[in-house]
Amino acid sequence: MKKILVQLDSDKSPSVFDAVTAYDSGVDNLLQYGDIAPCQVRDLVHGAMFTRGEDALKNSAIFVGGSDVTSGEEILKEVVNSFFGTVRVSAMLDSNGCNTTAVAAVRKILSVGEVKGKKVVILAGTGPVGMRAAGLLALEGADVLLTSRGFAKSEKAAATVSKRFSCNITPAQVSSPEETEEALKDASAVLCAGAAGIMLIPESLWAKHPTLQVLADANAVPPLGVENTKPHWSGKEVEGKIIFGALAIGGLKMKIHRKCVAQLFTKNDLILDAEEIYEIAKSI
Amino acid sequence: MKKILVQLDSDKSPSVFDAVTAYDSGVDNLLQYGDIAPCQVRDLVHGAMFTRGEDALKNSAIFVGGSDVTSGEEILKEVVNSFFGTVRVSAMLDSNGCNTTAVAAVRKILSVGEVKGKKVVILAGTGPVGMRAAGLLALEGADVLLTSRGFAKSEKAAATVSKRFSCNITPAQVSSPEETEEALKDASAVLCAGAAGIMLIPESLWAKHPTLQVLADANAVPPLGVENTKPHWSGKEVEGKIIFGALAIGGLKMKIHRKCVAQLFTKNDLILDAEEIYEIAKSI
Amino acid sequence: MKKILVQLDSDKSPSVFDAVTAYDSGVDNLLQYGDIAPCQVRDLVHGAMFTRGEDALKNSAIFVGGSDVTSGEEILKEVVNSFFGTVRVSAMLDSNGCNTTAVAAVRKILSVGEVKGKKVVILAGTGPVGMRAAGLLALEGADVLLTSRGFAKSEKAAATVSKRFSCNITPAQVSSPEETEEALKDASAVLCAGAAGIMLIPESLWAKHPTLQVLADANAVPPLGVENTKPHWSGKEVEGKIIFGALAIGGLKMKIHRKCVAQLFTKNDLILDAEEIYEIAKSI
To answer: Which chain A residue is nearest to residue C33, measuring alpha carbons?
Structure first.
């Protein structure tokens, strides 16, 4: 029986990235649906639920994507609401690659050493990747500081993450070099989760930093988030710091993405969001 | 050469149900088209007709679906109008599952015994499933009574079916328990073809009915069409009556659906509508 | 690794013709995108570029189609602009079949003998097929005359082709039998590239023509472009002339189309437009 993945995408044209990755994960046939609103979800999900019975149900699964993460979360909620008891199929949320990228960044940081009781900073962390990484690092016991250019925005994001992951994230405003320095004080690790093409940490700050051990950067477009580094650095040691560029994180993200899609077809009741994807990534 | 099915669906998002079933019927690659209006059909059908020659043409076929049966019928008409003589591909109509469900219900009723010369009632029969079942039962020689809550509606549906299947269906209004009892008088079999979640025959009526031998119910959502029965009953005998629930009918419907899609790829000139699907179902 | 083709189509419903031909060319999975505007192209192309690395990149490719050739050309331009250096995928343009049909017609004409220094006429040549055929014949050294019912239109098309193919096409108005005769004077070959169902050369003109050796006709719908011929004639000799009908050209077009799509997956940096498709066709 063929492995069929239903791609529910909130964008007008469903992601080619997610489609190619689905096929590279062992999917036999993909059904692509773009411009999906939550109200359309139920009929489509029922079509996946009611065509294959019992053990065969695990051969159908759902992937929720698109550039808008909030829409993706609403779609996933509708997917789950469409199930009847054990008559259900596995589903994964990775709108804009948020879950797989956040998990890859956290795994890279953790590969250097545990973060329990240590301060970890998520610079420009109010986007989907930053928020999910903050939550996952907090679950690992880190004291997480999540920053934004405006305090209100960081406060809102920190509250959302704290509630979602049942943890306690500290917000901070970072809109000047002095505030960056203050935010990084006593920090053991930092993740630059800002927009592409914006430098967040000058070399003068990170190279001589007394406590920083790990720097991770999700930005692959120059200027990079961490000044004078390279996107392909994968744990390169410079000035006693271990540095992970965006391409190194991206390479791991691809492996995680593929493994999670493959996992969908092992059972019919998986819901893969940040925590579940994080667990699966541990075995890579 | 790959078996390619072109799914022409009148709904915005083409049916996942039909897509998964297509792959489970042996289709290699599905081309999904949603939001199809009759005026778009010709170009798409020509694309199926002019890409593979002679014997190879049977490897391309068309499936017309969507929740609106009238739209589906118009699309199928355009499909057929697009052919040039022997340069054509096979096509099947099953908008909203109407043909395969009606055929499955009729096959279940017939499995108990022939209906020739007997009275068969289609309760709430003005929908696509009820109308097609009425026609097929009339072709088997039954005296078919088709009911609706309003007489005018039953009259219109009966006339449409009579014309379409060259038979003579009798209309009746059923809007009260008394009218239900009157409609079922002397009936040998009944099919509940109404909307989901509406009870049509109280147990007090069917359990002691003097002539009813078979009850079939297309409604899987409680309250069921036949009171105090189970959707999975597949010919269960209760009070001397044989009862078929919606899941039993649905299981047969899936087999018929798959067999018909597979059949499309055996020749390049099949048009599978109610009668043809009924014939194919006889071999299951 | 599966061969994935991304079909970017400017029409609302992506072409079934191109889709079936893609599968018949060895594509494993097709991703169909309709209603594509140039502004949507970048994200989709990046999805093809960033999912498979290095040598594996050649397993992803892009096909640009749709009934509007100008839109297709704009889409292809955006595809190429989306690439980063060597991180790219192969792409092919064949909106409305213009490239593969023009190449097939030119190959048929050339099969009779070379055109270097000879006069070749493209009747009603202002459409995509006529313009591309004009350019390719000029590259083979022919003196090409491109005609239209209005002189201004032929002049504009001739200028466009001359610029695009760095050659020198002569325009001419042909709106009467006398102008047709004048245009064909001293011609060695002619291609009828007009709309379906319009006769362009009466038998009385071509049958006794003193210099014409080859006639090719892209119109398969009666009345044909060359009077009293047959669409399936593939090099049939009549009155000392070699004649190619639209079905014969179409048969070669299919072979060229399939070979070019297959070629896309041999390297990751091919851009297949008129000249490249012409080169590939030489090996058929």
So the answer is: A13
